[in-house]
Amino acid sequence: QNIESNNGQFCVNIISEWYLDAANHSCGNFASSVDEFDVSGMTKINDCEVVNAPRVKEAAVSYECELQHIHALTNDATGKATTEIVLAKVVRVHVDSTVLMANSDVERPAVDTMQLKPVGRLGGNIYSMIGETVDIPRPKVS
Question: Which residues form the Flavin reductase like domain (predicted)?
């Protein structure tokens, strides 16, 4: 609802361990009139270059996005829409220098995952954090 009411422009902010508690406070089922920045204590910054939407200052990686499609998923038993999948085009990326890999290319910045410390929401109240990572080269196809 918030995305649609903002002309389809929004930011996706990657949650990192250092602000997980604040980010979790924005996950409530708030009315669209409630400013989740106020509720969570996260800092709103309005420095997007392409979209007219705020982003989270605490996020080391943010994506400026334009809505492409919202797909409602329905409950098989009732036919009622229970959740939605949002598809968007990323039009600008913000990456804080503190999470860039050494010698990263300015045009295609490479993020150091262990510095970013990303957090994933698995469902309900459960989140995951990066433990061990493995870098496996893709096979060469001729």
Answer: 6-99
